[in-house]
Every structure is written in C-alpha cells, then in structure tokens.
Design brief:
There is one protein chain. The protein has helices at 3-12, 16-29, 34-46, 50-63, 68-80, 84-96, 102-114, 118-131, 136-148, 152-165, 170-182, 186-199, 204-215. It is mainly α and 217 residues long. The chain has a domain at 150-217: Tetratricopeptide repeat domain (Serine Threonine Protein Phosphatase 5, Tetratricopeptide repeat). The longest helix has 14 residues, at 16-29. The chain is elongated and about 70 Å long. The N and C termini lie far apart (67 Å). 42% of the residues are buried.
C-alpha cells in the first residue's frame, strides 16, 4: 500500500505515531515528492508542533512551488495563530495554485470575516457551500455572513438548511429567531428562540431575546 495513503489512514484512526512513520517512509522512498512532506507537516500540526510543521510545508514548496496543499496547510497554521492576514494570503495562493476545494474556499472566507471584510468573504463561503452542501459549519457561517450584510431571506435559507442536517444546532435556531424578528414574524421568531433554548437552556443570547420579546408583548 502507498505509504502516504497508509499514513492518512493512520491519521484518520488517530494513530499519529504510525502516521508519522508511514510519512517518513514515503519521504525516504521518494524525497522529491512534496506530498510526503505536506502529510508529515500535517501530523506535526495535529500534535501541536507548528514550528516544525511549517518547515515541512516550506520544504514541500521548495520542491514544487505549485504544491497547493502546502499553502493551504500554512494558511491553517496562521489562522489558528490568529494571523488572519497571513492566513488569507496563503489560502489565496492555494487557490491560485489550483486548490479549489470547499475547505480552502471556506477558510479563505473565514479569514476575511476575521478581518471584518464580510462582503469580500461572501462569494467564497457561497462557493464552499456549493461544493459541499452537507457542511453544517459552512452553511452556518454563510448564513451569518448573509445576515450581517442584511440579506435576511438568504440567511434564513442557509440557517434552515443547517438545521435540516443538524437538528440540534442551537445557534442556527437562535439566528433563525433573530431573522424572523427582522421579518416581523413574531410567532415564527418565538418558535425558533424556544427551540434554541430547548436545545441549550443556558444560551445567553436566546434568553436575552426571549425576555425582550416577552417585555414587548
């Protein structure tokens, strides 16, 4: 079995030690293939050794400047370190190098949101959802971005898809409630807020909105 594929399987099983061995073997067998370095970097990142992980990603790029997955992985390191401008740049580079995956579009969109550039984030989050319509987090974040841009009907559609897939998503119900308040549909708003609280009784924002709604009656 291909050592990289074997290592990925070990990673999926949570066996990082065996994954590292497999990727090390892959690098030894084919030192000019950037994939092994990227995969080994991913193991190091997963166990928290981001400094060493970065060196492996940079080695992959030194071998192949078009190794799009390496730019994506560096972007994740920057994002996790809250270096959102650098993260954005890396996800953009990954995209330019041909990495048109839902994950890359999603992370580029999230980086832009963190940089308070929601309008620029919107098309990337939209593309992420188009490529993976069952990604609950992407649906939710796309909905939030739409809501922040006051595109309420479009936001409702995304939050609704979110709860179709994850019926226990309290935050999606809460945001649906807020959206229906903006639509002046108090009955539907109350239903959604109550559902959020049923799922998460200590949901502070939902409790606040419910209290305000009851005061307004």
């Amino acid at each position: 079995m291909d050592k990289n594929l074997l290592g990925v399987q070990y990673m999926q099983d949570g066996n990082m030690e065996e994954a590292a061995k497999a990727f090390n073997d892959a690098i030894t067998e084919n030192p000019k293939d950037p994939v092994g370095y990227i995969n080994f970097g991913n193991v190091l990142a997963a166990v928290g050794d981001e400094e060493k992980a970065l060196k492996f990603y940079e080695k992959a790029i030194a071998i192949d400047q078009d190794a799009a997955a390496a730019y994506y992985s560096i972007g994740n390191l920057h994002y996790n370190g809250e270096r959102f401008e650098q993260a954005k740049n890396m996800f953009e580079m990954a995209m330019k190098k041909g990495l048109e995956t839902s994950d890359n579009f999603f992370m580029l969109g999230m980086s832009l949101i963190q940089l308070e550039k929601g309008r620029f984030a919107l098309p990337y989050l939209q593309r992420s959802v188009e490529l993976n319509q069952n990604d609950v987090e992407a649906l939710f974040q796309y909905g939030l971005c739409l809501a922040q841009l006051e595109l309420v009907d479009e936001a409702i559609a995304q939050f609704s898809k979110c709860i179709e897939i994850a019926s226990d998503h309290a935050d999606a119900y809460y945001n649906l409630g807020v959206a229906y308040i903006l639509k002046e549909d108090s009955a539907k708003a109350s239903e959604m807020i109550n559902k959020a609280l049923e799922l998460q009784p200590d949901h502070e924002l939902a409790n606040t909105v419910k209290n305000l709604m009851e005061l307004g009656k």
